[in-house]
Amino acid sequence: MGWFLTGRCSLVSLERCAMSFPEPSGGAGLMLPATTLQGWQALLDRVVVPPDLDTCPPAGSHLGPDDVRIRYHATMHTVQTPVLKRAVAVARRLWLASSPRSEGPLDLAIDGPGETGMTTVLRQIGRIYEGIVRAQLPPGTQKRIPVIHINTPLAPGSKLDMSIPFAEFLGHKHTKDPESGQRSTDMTGPVCHVMKACGTRLVLVDGIDRLDNSELKTAFDYFGYLAAECNVSFVYCGPGSREVVNEARRGKRPGPAGPGSGGVPTLAVQPLPYSTDDYELFHEVIKAFDQGLRLRQHTPGDLLSLAAHLHRRTGGYMKPLSHLICQSAQEAIETGIEAITSELLDNQLVGVFEEDAIQQI
To answer: Quick one: which of 67, 268, 324, 359 has the fewest CB in 10 Å?
Structure first.
């Protein structure tokens, strides 16, 4: 999603034209996931720039699949929130503390309800961190892999299962012939070699909430080994991640919970509030979306007049809020309305509806 990602990061040299979407070598138009090295690099280098209406095809023109405004409104530009701004500071501190320390690096959890944008916050930390590393490297420096991004594997039963996501990110072949059905081999050795040789210092782990209690020991023993062996910090993300990490720690080091007991530092991501006495933050976010719209009949501030309606439909959750606005803008272009209205918002299959209202496609 483009609603949190930094389109222009001063820490990373990005020279891309408007609507430039780098495509990794996986086939024409194929965007690899950010949990692969090529997909991660494409995410780092992607820039979303609002198109100039004066240079776009005139009203009434045929809309092809590559229409610049349709593509732009699929993601739109950066919308900063307090948690995203804090993520920048967190990334800088992680980098400053990433030099060898006798007590080892410190981990972090990103916690909150689903669909609040935790994954985007996780990736923002990785983006800023890698941007700092890039800026520190002299020209011609050997390629580095400062950040690895994985999803928590399902039902990990051994270090073999835990090593596969790391191998997948790095592009290692972990079977002789994937089509033969031969079992993957433990890739811990090759993964550690690359992490050390390429200077990996940060591992982003999404979906940590998928782990069952019986799987915590396997997973966190593995993470702990990599942290000690390769001197890396881990950032764990998912609903309840703070309790997941702390439970894993308590399982290894029994002791009373409470202040000073070594609980994992946690960055909380919550829905945006909206009420008669607490509306400024939500208004600021809606203003940012409003300024990013490129619709011919849109007047600045129009979207702000729909703020209460938008919050009622989304509850202040960033993921449905972004989708609701982006999809409405696309339909506004396709239908020629060229403006977002409450009726257009209610025509989208995103967000909350009345209990007795069933949307039909």
So the answer is: 359
